[in-house]
Every structure is written in C-alpha cells, then in structure tokens.
Design a protein that fits this description.
By secondary structure, this protein is mainly α. Among the domains are: 105 residues, 2-Layer Sandwich (TATA-Binding Protein), CATH 3.30.310; 109 residues, Tetratricopeptide repeat domain (Serine Threonine Protein Phosphatase 5, Tetratricopeptide repeat, Alpha Horseshoe), CATH 1.25.40; 76 residues, no CATH class. 68% of the residues lie in helices and 5% in strands.
C-alpha cells in the first residue's frame, strides 16, 4: 500500500484504540526512552527491534480486510504479541514511525498555509474554535469519541448518576474487576507486567468513583477486589513484586474510601478482622487497628478486640498452638494497652527458637525490668547451648557488661567465635576485648583456636570430592589486620582460596612484584576456561597487568615468551586472540 494509505491507518488515535490506555502508555515510555531500534520500511512493511528486558522483533503492515477495508496487521515476538494482542512494543514502533514521517504531532498542527511556515494549534485555539461551533457539532464529536473511549463514557455515566441521585451499577464494576484479575491459566514472568497494568486500569475506575463522591461503592468494590487479588496471586509469577504494589494501592484506596464513607464501625471491624485473619500472602489490612483506629472509633475497636479475644480463646483451647496471624493481632492489642505481662504471656507460648527468648528479654528491658530481661536471656542460652542466636548472645553480653560481669560478657563473644570462627566473630570478640584491656590475649587465644580447627580438619579422612583444607581463615584475618607479610607467609605455608591469593597479589605487587606475577599467571587459565567474552576481557586485562609488572622487573623477553605461550595454547579461541593481539 502507498504511504498515504498507511498514514490513514497508523495514527495516534488508532494506536491508542488498539492497545488500550495502559499498554499505550507503556509503549509511549518505551518510545520516549529510545527503546526502538532503526525503523525500516520495505514493501509496505514497517519493522524494527524494540529493546526492553528482552529484544523483540516487531512488524506493522496495512492490509485489506473485509469489504476491501484497510486494516493494520501487526506481529511481535513478545509473549503478548504471540497471543495476538496489540502490545506496548507495537505501540512504540508505531510512534517511532510517526516521528520518522513527521506525523507524531497528529491533530496538533494545522495544515500548511500559503506561507512556508506551519502554525502550531494551541489549546486556546481549540477552545475558541469549539466555542464558535454549533452545539450539535460538538455533541456529535463527543458521542463519536465516547464509543471508543471507555474512560470518557465512564466519567459521563458517573456524572449523570450523581446528578440524578440514582445507584451505581456495581455489577458492571464487579465484572470489570473480575475480567482484570482473571488469569486464564498461569501468568508467567514475561506477561506479568501487562497483567498488572490491566489491574491498574481497573483500579483507576475505583479512583474515579471515589473522586465523584461514591465512597461507599468504592469501599465495597475495593473489598471485592481484595478477594480477587488473593486468588489471582496463586496463579502468577510475581518475581518483580507487581502484586505488592497493587496491594499497597488497593489498601490505600480502601482506607481512603472508608474515611470518606464512614461505614458502620461494628460491621467494618468484622470485615477488617476477617481480611486480616484470612492468611493472605498480600497481608491486606495488616495492623488494621492502627490504620483504621480513627474510623473504627471506640465502638469498632471494642468489636475488633472482642473478635480477636474469641478467636484467641478458640485457637488456644486444649493447649493448641494459635496461628501466627492471631498471635500477631493479640500482641498488637497488648502493646496498645501497654500490658507487658499479657504480651509476655502471649510470647512465651512459642519458645522453639532462641530468638523468641530474645524478644521477651527485649520487652522486659523496654519495660525497665532489667533483672527479668537478664533472666530470659540466660534461659534462652541454656535452652539453646549450641549455635545460639548471636543476637541473643549480644544482648546477654550487654546485660553482663552493665553489671560489670566482664568475664561472663567475654564468654558470650567467645561462644560466638567458637560456634562460627569467622572474621566477623573475630572482629566482634576483639572489639569487646579492647574495652576490658584484653585484646592481645583474645587475639592469641582466637588464632590458636583457628589453628587447632585447621589441624583437626586435616587429620580427618575426607571424601574424594571434598575440597582440600587450607589456611584461608587465617589469611583472611591477617589481611583484615593489614599484616600482609604474615598473610603471605601463611598462604605459602598452608595455601588459601583463589580469592585470597588475588587479594595477596594486589597487596604485595607494589613492593614485591615478583611475588604477584606467578599468582596472576596462575589465575589467567581458570578465567579463560569460562569460555565467555566477559571472561576473555578479564583475562586480557590480567595478562596486560602481568606485562606491566614484568617490564618493571626488566623481564620483557620473559613476558613475550609467556604471551606467545598463552596465544599458542588458546589459538582456536578467536575472540580471545583478537583481544590479545593488542598486547606485546
């Protein structure tokens, strides 16, 4: 088809109508961000690659439809496009083509005058023109627009409904919400963004309801959407957290609608409690008594408390363990009341982790019950003597330190070090030891312990595939202490991981370049073996650095021989050869 025919079909209005509001907006964003590659137009086919999280091939073509009427044919390799929908990538290509053909400002510029300049039509020009027209002309234009613009129709319906004081057709809105949340099977990662966009479009309609003063209806529809959202989430790959954002928006909408509608507080309390205890993965109405406190008032809060206490009694009957949700609600109520004893009673029902003892100890400390705080911390350590939660041991050490029981506090940090014997535990031990002037003794004891651990591991029979025991833990400590020479000697004596060999080489190359060169040379081979271009880049940079160090040592000839050997052994790797060609 001719370019003029294509221009009649590919217009802003038609792109928007084909895509829908949300997808059109996303397509605009792609276009504005420069995601559309070079646009090609050949034999009536407009094509380009559109770049996003993936790169997709997009094509637009005007073909003859029924009755020889021209229509737009489109294809995109994205999941949405493969389902036959006009996706955001198609929108982006259409906008790029319009820009290329100078039609992107469609309906905003007047036709060329007899002069050589085009006059831009402003909003004031449009308003003046409309004011000069017959009312029927404007009404006809508005009605024509309404047939393709669902949002315009919805806004007009709302205004008429409000003016005539008639009820909103909630079924129509429910149908729209059901359609938006309907998954039609599993929504995979690549389709999730567009699925969430459709839900946001539906929530826009609830926003408009609220803006027009239909707060009670908006509240009811929000609660309906909450039910739908919980079910839909089970059939989605929400790795990017789209549903979290939707849940936040829906929760804010519901709260705003309740503030405006002022529903019966007792009934609202019942619904909030039901939502909070449903066990939703989206945590709708989490902490309801806080967010809705002013709306619920004394009557609603009393009803909420009554429901919570009844559920607590039911769920704890005959020694049963209550759910996490009702436990959380009861804890929240106890905190609101300032009832420390009630809060502790709730917490101590579940003491299967050392951290649970810490929580009670912290409650006691906040309540200025210092002795009880110490007692609960000690009970926790006694209940979990091995691999105790480090946060509990830190808490207990602080309590001992405030009572000047310094040796017992040191014992808490030593226990952590013995349990894990890593750098962080070593640092924590020495930091405390400095406070009590015991840092040198603590260092000697800790290093001796690490050496004993290494010797014990070496004495054990190890499996065929078990990694060798080396001195990485000691090398790490000495590097942190900036004892580079000691760390180097330790690595030479007992070995260490490649990670620490590289750190040692980087630390020694200034004063001992001859030590660093063989380390770097040894690392080049495993990097090349990854067989990827980024690995080849990394290996080339390392070889170049080796050359700089060897030239500084007066060993240019030796480096040339080394470089030739690397090239010979890896000659089939053409991409690597191109990178190494620049080295000499």
């Amino acid at each position: 088809m001719a370019t003029n025919d294509i221009k009649e079909i590919i217009t802003l209005k038609n792109l928007r109508a084909l895509a829908g509001g949300r997808s059109f907006k996303r397509g605009e964003e792609y276009f504005d961000e420069g995601a559309v590659g070079p646009v090609s137009e050949k034999s009536g086919v407009i094509s380009a690659k559109v770049h996003g999280s993936h790169t997709y091939d997009v094509r637009l073509k005007v073909i003859s439809g029924t009755n020889a009427q021209a229509i737009l044919d489109y294809t995109c390799t994205c999941p949405v496009g493969q389902d036959g929908d006009f996706c955001k990538h198609c929108v982006a290509l259409g906008l790029a083509w319009l820009e290329k053909t100078d039609d992107i400002e469609e309906a905003e510029y007047c036709e060329p005058s007899t002069s050589t300049t085009n006059k831009k039509i402003t909003d004031d020009d449009i308003r003046s023109w409309l004011e000069s027209q017959d009312l029927k002309v404007i009404l006809d234009m508005l009605m024509a627009q309404m047939t393709t613009d669902g949002r315009l129709r919805e806004e007009l319906v709302l205004k008429i409904t409000k003016e005539k004081v008639v009820g909103i057709d909630l079924n129509t809105y429910r149908k729209g919400l059901r359609s938006a949340f309907h998954t039609s099977g599993f929504v995979d990662y690549y389709n999730m963004s567009d699925f969430a966009d459709g839900i946001n479009d539906a929530l826009d309609s609830l926003d408009r309801l609220l803006e027009e003063g239909f707060a009670l209806e908006a509240m009811q529809l929000c609660e309906y959407a909450i039910e739908l959202a919980d079910d839909a989430l089970q059939n989605c790959d929400d790795s990017d957290g789209n549903f979290g954002d939707l849940a936040d928006r829906l929760a804010s909408l519901h709260l705003e609608a309740c503030e405006a509608a002022r529903p019966d507080p007792v009934e609202l309390a019942g619904r909030l409690f039901a939502f909070e205890t449903k066990g939703s993965d989206l945590d709708f109405c989490y902490g309801a008594t806080g967010d809705y406190e002013e709306i619920l008032g004394p009557t609603g809060l009393a009803e909420y408390r009554r429901l919570a206490e009844a559920e607590w009694e039911r769920s704890t009957k005959n020694g049963s363990n209550p759910s996490r949700t009702i436990t959380r609600i009861m804890e929240s109520l106890a905190r609101t009341d300032g009832n420390v004893d009630a809060l502790i009673a709730i917490k101590q029902r579940k003491l299967d982790l050392a951290y649970h003892y810490l929580e009670i100890a912290q409650i006691c400390r906040e309540a200025k019950r210092s002795d009880k705080a110490l007692e609960w911390a000690e009970r926790g350590v006694k209940a979990f003597p091995k691999n105790t939660d480090s946060r509990l041991l830190d808490f207990l050490a602080e309590e001992y330190f405030t009572r000047e029981r310094y040796d017992e506090a040191y014992g808490c940090y030593w226990t952590q070090f013995v349990d894990r014997a890593g750098l962080q535990q070593y640092i924590k031990l020495l930091d405390y030891a400095k406070k009590i002037n015991r840092d040198q003794v603590a260092r000697d004891e800790a290093l001796a312990f690490v050496r004993r651990q290494i010797d014990n591991e070496k004495s054990k029979t190890r499996g065929k595939w078990a990694p060798p025991v080396d001195h990485s833990s000691l090398v790490e400590i000495f590097l942190w202490e900036k004892n580079t020479d000691v760390a180097w000697d330790e690595a030479k004596r007992g070995g260490c991981s490649d990670h620490y060999w590289l750190k040692l080489a980087a630390a020694r190359e200034k004063d001992h370049p001859a030590d660093a060169v063989p380390v770097y040379q040894r690392m080049v081979e495993p990097i090349i073996s990854r067989m990827k271009n980024d690995a080849y880049d990394e290996a080339t940079r390392m070889v170049k650095h080796i050359g700089e160090l060897m030239r500084g040592l007066g060993k240019q000839a030796e480096f040339s021989a080394y470089l030739a050997d690397v090239k010979l052994r890896h000659k089939p790797k053409r991409n690597l050869m191109k990178l190494l060609a620049g080295l000499a």
